[in-house]
């Protein structure tokens, strides 16, 4: 490690913050990459990777809640911790300090919206195919029903046919 | 002609701003002014006048300072997206060793992380060969230039008025007229008088003289002898307030603060056993050692703004004894914010910039009380040893419950406002154990053993000796 490296270094795979744990600090990546993931219904989902200058854990500064995701180092990563008390004091003095965090949050929201609308588009296409298939099925079923209705009507009209049927049967 | 809305003078598209001084205050002012105006797509022209080449070794390229970037400033810069790379930071500091007449103790960072940076402001000491690290001031200046500022390597020799607009002149060139003039000339410039003569009753801050020297100990020796710890000395040397040894790459920056620091004071400091203990046994400072005696902020300036003129950084206000660069960041950003979002009239600066200065001034009042108490404690052995005992007892506890350690950490690293620190010292769980340890220390030193009583009866001298042994 170089003498001038600031912050704390995490080894590959080491957890920096863990989903569900309480937190009162925010982090800024100084070097390397960290991976953000979340658990739902026993499954782990990769959310995103963050690089130098990116902020994480900021939600804990604004809400008294537990961490919403787990963040791990990918390779060796170095992060700097920002204390909640000092940060909030500064933001009250100078609200523009929160600008970059808002910028990154809105960027993440935009990316999530993009992903959501992409997956929504998938659902929409699936639904349309399903509807089309259902319509075709219905049409086929109606045609089929109409045909059998026609046959039944014909049957009701004459006994010869029934005879024929019974012959077939 | 700029528009005037009642008391406001707006800074508009195409307007020109002159920044005199490219130290931390000047560079950060320019950076934030351009950042904010670029966000609005407002094109403002910024000229920074700075004669120093910060890459140059020795005094010519250096803004003379301890070079500690405080914990709170490192965090604020990280949030701003201003990265301090290891090519600029020579050492991350993670603890400090406090030396008093009663002994020494080590205080570790509250969260086990390196959040204090030790840097060289310029291109390093004049004895340095090839600079291995970049200068901190050059790093900030490049940041401002990258944001769109224009750098002029020139000293401003005259300032004046052209109608209601300020004018700046450098030798051999015609004067330039600006919509806003920013004074970021620091404490050590004779050119503070240019602003004092501008006719708005500005008065420079009160100053105190200090001493800085760079000890060329070499990277290996520094790493083994000092590690990543800053050493602080609260010694009973007449006229010395306190001293610090800050390990960097190849040098240890040593700063002495006090009254009339002269040759005698400097040599008594380097002869003191607590200082000798930190240096190799037979080490003597070389003859051509790089040293300087810069002035430090000691009291507020008066009227640091008028219509179209504002002073920032040390020239306006700084924090007492600590985190001057942090104060430069705060005042520079507040002035830039005011200029872009409010305006550049005296009324604008009074309403939106002055409160930031006042908050630092107000906090310094608490700083004065704290340093007065520290000054008294350092002169008396019993409270000094009670402080060391308290820190020793706190060693195993988690960060926030180490009250004495955190009070000292924040006082000497400049990591928290002085008011915050002062309030923490009023907490019963700070005061009660400290008073108790004072009483114990006092009783122990006044409770002589039988032999001592006998010795005291015959010779008072020996008591002093035993007391010292007792405390240590
Ligand atoms: C002994 C000592 C130790 C210190 N230690 C620390 C520390 O460890 N940490 C900390 O945060 N602070 C420390 N400080 C305080 C710190 O140095 C200042 O608070 C800080 O430098 C203020 O920045 P500034 O930009 O206002 O002024 P400066 O850094 O002084 O910059 C002023 C600039 O203006 C330029 N200039 C001057 N006149 C003109 C002109 N006429 N035309 C053009 N340019 C001009 C100069 O060349 C200079 O570059 C210390 C101070 C002293 C004296």
Describe this structure in words.
The complex is a heterodimer of chains A (about 170) and B (about 475). Chain A is elongated. Chain A has 4 helices and 6 strands; from the N terminus they run E-E-E-E-E-H-E-H-H-H. Chain A folds into 2 domains: about 1-95, Jelly Rolls (Sandwich); about 95-140. Chain A has about 170 residues and is of the alpha+beta class. In chain A, strands 1, 2, 3, 4, 5 and 6 form a 6-stranded antiparallel sheet that branches. With about 475 residues, chain B is an alpha+beta fold. In chain B, helix 1 (about 25-40) runs parallel beside helix 8 (about 325-340). The longest helix of chain B has 26 residues, at about 355-380. Bound molecules: flavin-adenine dinucleotide. Flavin-adenine dinucleotide binds near residues 66 and 313 of chain B.
Brief descriptors of the model:
heterodimer, A: 169 residues, alpha+beta, Jelly Rolls, 2 domains, six-stranded antiparallel beta sheet, 6 strands, 49% helix, B: 472 residues, FAD/NAD(P)-binding domain, six-stranded mixed beta sheet, 16 helices, 22 strands, 39% helix, 21% strand, binds flavin-adenine dinucleotide
List the helices and strands and how they pair.
The complex is a heterodimer of chains A (169) and B (472).
Chain A: E1 8-10, E2 15-17, E3 25-40, E4 43-50, E5 55-56, H1 59-62, E6 70-83, H2 84-93, H3 99-157, H4 159-168
Chain B: E1 4-5, E2 8-9, E3 16-20, H1 24-39, E4 45-49, E5 68-69, H2 71-80, E6 91-93, E7 95-100, E8 103-108, E9 116-118, H3 136-147, E10 150-152, E11 156-162, E12 165-170, E13 176-177, E14 180-183, H4 192-196, E15 206-215, H5 219-225, E16 229-234, E17 240-247, E18 252-258, H6 263-271, H7 273-276, E19 291-292, E20 295-299, E21 305-306, E22 309-311, H8 324-341, H9 346-352, H10 354-379, H11 381-394, H12 403-413, H13 418-425, H14 428-446, H15 450-458, H16 461-471
Parallel strand pairs in B: 3-4, 3-14, 4-10, 7-16, 14-22
Antiparallel strand pairs in B: 1-2, 5-9, 6-9, 7-8, 11-12, 12-13, 15-18, 15-19, 15-20, 16-17, 17-18, 21-22
Helix pairs in contact in B: 1-3, 1-8, 10-13, 11-14, 12-13, 14-16
The structure holds flavin-adenine dinucleotide (FAD).
